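Morning. Coffee machine broken again, so started the prediction first thing and wrote up yesterday's gels while waiting. Chain of 150 residues, entered below exactly as on the submission form.
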Amino acid sequence: MDEAFEQAIREQAEAKSDGENGDAPSRDNIVASSASSLETSFQNRVFGGEYPQDIRKKYHLMDDVLGEGSFGTVRKCRRIGSKEVFALKTMNKSKLPDATQLRREVDILLDVDHPHIIKLYDVFEDETHIYLVSELCTGGELYDAVVEKS
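Came back before lunch.
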């Protein structure tokens, strides 16, 4: 968020200094204009900038696709500097039916710690995607296991 703010200030300063009278822009005008740019940027945010944007700073994304659904893809990822492997769900924001429900679910999963509920470790959000880093559950599809038991 700080980088976006600084970039917006630089762009506004350049645009104002190229104005018709050549006067330097006032700090108040730059800050107001930058805040407006940031507000527009955050309108596309499901979580309002609460979570970091760049997942690649913390995780190495693997090519192993574990599954695909209507909202996105699940693949493996590994924490940088560690051998820990997680499941990474990448969701395209344009395909989300209800952002409010997703926010509630993420808030709950971040707080829950139970052996029978998948653990959500991290959330990332950029302009087009939401990334959920969770516990990697191996052993196949739950549906197949239930059918096999029946």
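The CA atoms of residues 45 and 127 lie 7 Å apart. Going to sketch it on the whiteboard this afternoon.
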